[in-house]
């Protein structure tokens, strides 16, 4: 279960952050959801996989957020969010495990 928790956090951050921003029309609030989930995931990755991997996975999480924007222009907003969420969760499961 411990290796699944960061994947769930990043998924909640990406999906929940987008939905929060969309529903409230407040992008900074959506960013706060994204940041809180990312901080929690970083702490779990650091504990399980070390600081270096935690930093790399966090960078991937933030890159996924950034890449969702141009991807949304090609495939739509929600499909884009789901695609980057799946990629981030998979990376977390593969690289965020205990050393």
> Which regions have little confidence, pLDDT < 50, spanning 5+ residues?
none
Task: Tally the beta strands.
Answer: 0
Please, what is the average pLDDT?
Answer: 95
Please report the distance between the alpha carbons of the first and last residues.
Answer: 15 Å
How big is the Rg? 13 Å
- Count of helical regions: 4
What percentage of amino acids are in beta strands?
Answer: under 5%
Order of helices and strands: HHHH
| Basic shape | globular
Helix fraction by DSSP (H/I, runs of at least 4): over 70%
Oligomer: single chain
> What characterizes the major β-sheet?
none
Structural class by helix and strand composition = mainly alpha
Structure in words:
The chain is an all-alpha fold and 99 residues long. Helices cover 88% and strands 0% of the residues. It has helices at residues 5-24, 27-49, 51-75, 77-95. The protein is globular, with a radius of gyration of 13 Å. 30% of the residues are buried.
Key terms for this structure?
mainly alpha, single chain, 88% helix, 99 residues
Give the SSE map.
Elements: H1 5-24, H2 27-49, H3 51-75, H4 77-95
Describe this structure in a few short sentences.
The chain is an all-alpha fold. 88% of the residues lie in helices and 0% in strands.
């Amino acid at each position: 279960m411990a290796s699944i928790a960061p994947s769930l956090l990043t998924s909640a951050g990406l999906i929940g952050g987008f939905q929060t921003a969309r529903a409230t029309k407040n992008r900074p609030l959506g960013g706060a959801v994204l940041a809180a989930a990312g901080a929690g995931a970083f702490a779990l990755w650091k504990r399980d996989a070390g600081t270096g991997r935690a930093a790399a996975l966090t960078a991937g999480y933030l890159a996924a957020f950034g890449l969702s924007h141009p991807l949304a222009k090609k495939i739509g907003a929600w499909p884009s969010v789901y695609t980057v969420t799946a990629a981030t969760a998979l990376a977390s499961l593969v690289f965020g495990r205990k050393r």
